[in-house]
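Progress note, sequence design subtask.
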């Protein structure tokens, strides 16, 4: 239960302030400034004084004019202490700053043309020094200085001014670095102290040639979150704002404290900021007697990384929806007005809320109580003789920064260096050496991240009924040309060459399925609990450890959020794949299979680099980087074949080891495809396809932009599907041939539909099956990986032993020539059998009560793996060899669309029903197989497209044959 005893406040702080109105007292008093932009000295030396003492207020700062915004943002995004962007920060920072400048300039224009933080900081420092001269004459005179991290006056400028004024440079002198952030954070106070330490070393350190004995003697006021004067100033401003509400409503007004957010990577490292903000909130509410309901929220999130939540804007929006329209926002971590209060809170949060009852407490600014509190803090520090607080000597638990350690040692001084001995054992020189190596590895990985696929993938405008006639001989060998006869045996195409590298590829993809899902689950779980902690400071939870079992994450909310993230990944990859897959399939007819396969694998390789980076640095990377990986994967075509031959291996590996191994395997596969495996499509056939393509009219080639936009038209996106709907010419058709074409179209559409349904279910539910099993049966990485291995082991046996055995037994030895005959009775029977087996498996999923029965159901469903190859084979038998690339391109489009639609539906069902009727998703999936089984009974055997396609729809009929 929270204590309600009020904090005592020194009389000297609150004296003579009771009669002041806060709003009138905080009007800015304009004073003449010297040429350097610093406040003039407030006093002169007194007899017996140990002064002068330089009082340096530290802050991040803000641009005083709109023209300073870009420089301010460039420095802001270059600071890895505040916004960590990785080793490429010095390159990414200016780009982000330049892109955001126009928007931020407009915001500063809306609050008067610049930030008032410099004027308030100079005023606060001057007034504090005046009071210090009175209450601490032994250290007078106190000279005011302001040092900003990102805006004028910069730390460098302040330090040079100190030297000009006679501090240091052989003269010695005392200076106090006084942070204007009451709550300590490595991103704010720590960053400012790092900058101060840097310029001290440059201007007074060993390299400067100055006498160390005559350098400035620094001490630090690094935090003051619960100082009674600070608490009183906040409480008085809240009371003033509460007084504006009707008396009957005051006790129900929600007090919403808002503080600047931090990246979760900083929070998880052990930064004390969030805890100290919470102590300030508690102290203020204790001073108010806990008279009102209150919450703490976080604002000003920037960039793609995960940040501390809940966001202030979302909190206000949600409370308004719940009927709380009387609310006071309190900027609890800010001591002066600037863009975060005047624009983000006043204009965005309060302005967009649209309720008169939502207000903001006045900022501290020139509040006399606050300024006397600053003077009291400084006086206590000067009297103590301490270099810094004991708390500052304790590093964050996960800190391995050499700069941070050396900076703390410098400011702590000789008296406190003994405190760093135990720290060095856990995070000192040895840890620093490791950190340097890790940084080098991150640099190499980030350089790999910078690689992009720039190969142009020009779309084609061909459709089936516009195909010029090709000289495809019915009796021509399947590989199509005597060109291969002149080559040595190891350069002749052979399907066995493709099996080993494909096995590596599928091994890599399958081996990362379970770790990737659990990686997403861990990150989502971590962010969820952090958000709950922010909403309720009393909320406690076990830390989420990456790569380990986290039983606390097996709750419906985390499962639902993880399913949504995986949905977005599949949605992005599937949509882009839907755009490029048909074009890649068409291009493979003209330029060969290997280059296009290499391109797809290259896209997968690059996307896995992003995933590996997340796995290597989960505290520094947001789960949103998976969306970037999905974008790259989809842009290069992604994989549109079911991963039925994948074994899940590495259950005993660390998470990072899995992804590093995946990168190696993908790289081997790409190298093998591009350099070793012979092309299966002869040059003769490639040249025929290219000549045919070039012979077509290209009306839009002169205008690439118009051509590109035309290809993005929905009609053109779906145009590759025209091969599934061939039409005869009305002028040359007969009733019999039109009937035959109707049967042909019916077959193509039915088989394509069944294949799309089965592909969508098979690919779109792998992640759901793992999430479901880990949630319902409490499985971890090991159990899930064994499950994947068993299931896919059954699928491998089915595809490599059972299916070839049935085909060989019934059809006999394979023929050397490819003859188009359409689907025969064996194809259709295998399709129906596969659907029935899959249906049994998914019914088993839904009714399983134990992990063993669930695995048995999956093993039964794996036998249904005979369906996809039977469907693909049956479909290609309906077209001549010259159209195989196009028919597979059309199927690639349908598969990609299935990758978009299937996760949206089934991940959505799972995220909604988890915890209530969790197995509902499997009931729906079984229904899909029931629909596929119904459609399979309408397939007609022995229907196929003729070898020579008509050059126009009118020629199609004459070349169509059908076997009864």
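Output:
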């Amino acid at each position: 239960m929270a204590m309600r005893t009020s904090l005592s406040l020194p009389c000297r702080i609150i004296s003579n302030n009771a009669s002041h109105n806060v709003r009138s007292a905080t009007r800015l008093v304009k004073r003449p400034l010297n040429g350097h932009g610093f406040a003039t000295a407030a006093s002169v030396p007194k007899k017996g004084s140990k002064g002068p003492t330089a009082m340096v207020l530290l802050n991040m700062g803000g641009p005083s004019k709109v023209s300073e915004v870009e420089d301010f943002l460039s420095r802001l995004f270059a600071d890895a202490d505040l916004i960590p962007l990785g080793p490429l920060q010095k390159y990414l920072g200016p780009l982000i700053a330049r892109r955001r400048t126009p928007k931020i300039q407009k915001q500063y224009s809306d609050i008067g043309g610049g930030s008032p933080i410099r004027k308030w900081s100079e005023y606060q420092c001057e007034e504090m020094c005046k009071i210090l001269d009175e209450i601490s004459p032994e250290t007078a005179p106190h000279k005011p200085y302001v040092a900003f991290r990102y805006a004028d006056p910069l730390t460098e400028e302040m330090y040079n001014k100190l030297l000009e004024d006679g501090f240091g440079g052989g003269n010695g002198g005392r200076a106090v670095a006084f942070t204007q952030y009451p709550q300590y954070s490595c991103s704010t106070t720590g960053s400012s102290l790092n900058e101060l330490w840097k310029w001290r070393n440059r201007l007074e350190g060993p390299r400067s040639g100055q006498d160390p004995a005559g350098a400035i003697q620094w001490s630090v006021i690094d935090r003051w979150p619960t100082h009674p004067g600070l608490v009183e100033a906040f409480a008085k401003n809240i009371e003033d704002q509460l007084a504006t509400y009707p008396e009957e409503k005051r006790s129900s007004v929600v007090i919403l404290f808002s503080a600047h957010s931090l990246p979760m990577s900083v929070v998880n490292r052990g930064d004390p900021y969030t805890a100290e903000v919470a102590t300030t909130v508690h102290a203020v509410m204790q001073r108010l007697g806990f008279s009102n309901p209150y919450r703490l929220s976080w604002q000003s999130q920037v960039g793609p990384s995960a940040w501390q939540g809940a966001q202030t804007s979302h909190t206000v929006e949600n409370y308004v929806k719940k009927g709380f329209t009387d609310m006071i926002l309190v900027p609890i971590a800010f001591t002066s007005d600037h863009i975060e209060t005047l624009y983000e809170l006043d204009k965005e949060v309060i302005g967009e809320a649209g309720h008169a009852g939502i207000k903001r407490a006045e900022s501290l600014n020139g509040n006399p109580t606050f300024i006397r509190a600053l003077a009291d803090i400084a006086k206590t520090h000067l009297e103590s003789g301490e270099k810094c607080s004991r708390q500052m000597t304790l590093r964050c638990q996960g800190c391995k920064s050499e700069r941070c350690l050396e900076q703390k040692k410098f400011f702590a001084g000789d008296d406190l260096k003994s405190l760093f001995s135990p720290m060095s054992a856990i995070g000192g020189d040895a840890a620093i050496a490791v950190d340097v190596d890790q940084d080098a590895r991150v640099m190499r990985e980030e350089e790999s991240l910078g690689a992009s696929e720039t190969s142009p993938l020009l779309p084609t405008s061909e459709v089936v009924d516009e195909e010029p006639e090709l000289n495809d001989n019915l009796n021509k060998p399947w590989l199509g040309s005597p060109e291969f006869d002149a080559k040595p045996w190891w350069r002749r195409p052979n399907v066995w060459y493709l099996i080993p590298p494909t096995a590596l590829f599928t091994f890599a993809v399958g081996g990362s399925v379970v770790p990737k899902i659990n990686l997403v689950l861990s990150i989502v779980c971590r962010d969820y609990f952090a958000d709950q902690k922010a909403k309720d400071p009393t909320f406690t939870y076990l830390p989420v450890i990456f790569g380990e079992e986290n039983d606390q994450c097996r709750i419906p909310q985390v499962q639902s959020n993880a399913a949504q993230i995986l949905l977005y990944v599949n949605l992005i990859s599937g949509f882009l794949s839907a755009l490029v897959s048909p074009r890649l399939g068409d291009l493979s007819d003209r330029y060969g299979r290997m280059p296009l396969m290499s391109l797809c694998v290259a896209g997968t390789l690059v996307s896995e680099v992003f995933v590996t980076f997340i796995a290597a640095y989960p505290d520094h990377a947001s789960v949103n980087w998976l969306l970037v990986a999905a974008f790259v994967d989809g842009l290069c075509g992604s994989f549109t074949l079911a991963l039925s031959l994948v074994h899940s291996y590495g259950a005993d590996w660390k998470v990072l080891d899995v992804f590093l191994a995946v990168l190696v395997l993908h790289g081997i596969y790409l190298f093998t495809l591009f350099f070793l495996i012979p092309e299966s499509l002869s040059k003769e056939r490639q040249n025929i396809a290219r000549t045919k393509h070039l012979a077509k009219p290209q009306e839009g080639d002169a205008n690439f932009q118009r051509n590109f936009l035309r290809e993005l038209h929905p009609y053109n996106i779906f145009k590759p599907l025209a091969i599934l709907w061939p039409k005869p010419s009305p002028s040359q058709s007969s009733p019999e041939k039109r009937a035959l074409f109707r049967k042909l179209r019916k077959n193509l559409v039915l088989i394509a539909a069944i294949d799309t349904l089965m592909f969508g279910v098979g690919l779109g539910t792998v992640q759901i099956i793992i999430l479901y099993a880990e949630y319902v049966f409490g499985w971890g990485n090991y159990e899930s990986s064994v499950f994947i291995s068993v299931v896919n082991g059954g699928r491998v046996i089915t595809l490599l032993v059972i299916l070839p055995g049935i085909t060989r037994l019934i059809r006999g030895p394979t023929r050397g020539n490819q003859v188009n005959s359409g689907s025969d009775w064996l194809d259709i029977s295998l399709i129906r059998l596969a659907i029935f087996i899959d249906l049994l498996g998914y019914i088993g999923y839904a009714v399983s009560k134990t992990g063993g029965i669930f695995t048995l159901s999956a093993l039964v469903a794996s036998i249904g793996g005979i369906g996809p190859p039977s469907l693909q084979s049956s479909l290609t038998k309906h077209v001549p060899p010259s159209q195989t690339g196009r028919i597979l391109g059309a199927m690639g489009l349908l598969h990609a669309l299935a990758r978009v639609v299937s996760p949206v539906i089934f991940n959505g069902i799972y995220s909604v029903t988890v915890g209530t009727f969790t197995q509902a998703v499997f009931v729906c999936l079984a229904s899909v197989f029931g629909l596929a089984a119904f459609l399979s009974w309408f397939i007609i055997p022995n229907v196929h497209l003729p070898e020579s396609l008509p050059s126009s729809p009118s020629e199609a009929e004459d070349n169509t044959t059908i076997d009864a």
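The domain at 451-962 is CATH 1.20.1250.20 (Growth Hormone; Chain: A;). Work on this subtask will continue into the next period as scheduled.
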